[in-house]
Design brief:
single chain, about 120 residues, mainly beta, seven-stranded mixed β-sheet
């Protein structure tokens, strides 16, 4: 299975002119999005709490989270964002994708817009 990347902009909802743009790995195995902490802090986003996340290797890690607006493919979604380590690759999680009606086409590993957002 291949990998899919998409350019996303993260905005501070209370100061929308403060934004950071980066290339995100689309990770349908991740619930939430992840961005290196220094980029979130640079646009004025601070930790709002912590959650325990299960990692692919089976380990668990307590990480700080915040919320922000994420823009991609002409859509905007308010999202939980994990504050990752300095060298973390930004991740676009499945909740953000599904919230705006976008999914990964498994045949060609490209994002496709659904005709509607699932409500049921």
């Amino acid at each position: 299975m291949g990998v899919t990347h998409v350019t996303c902009t993260v905005r501070n909802p209370s100061e929308p002119e403060r934004a950071w743009e980066g290339l995100f790995l689309v990770d349908t195995g991740a619930t939430d999005c992840l961005v290196p902490k220094q980029h979130l802090e640079s646009i004025g986003l601070a930790p709002k709490g912590q959650r325990i996340y299960g990692l692919a290797d089976g380990s668990e890690l307590r990480m700080s989270v915040t919320t922000g607006d994420i823009e991609f493919m002409g859509e905007v979604v308010g999202s939980t964002i994990v504050m990752g380590d300095e060298n973390s690759e930004p991740l676009l999680g499945v909740t953000a994708l599904e919230s705006v009606g976008i999914e990964v086409d498994p045949r060609n590993q490209q994002l496709k817009r659904l005709p509607f957002v699932r409500l049921r």
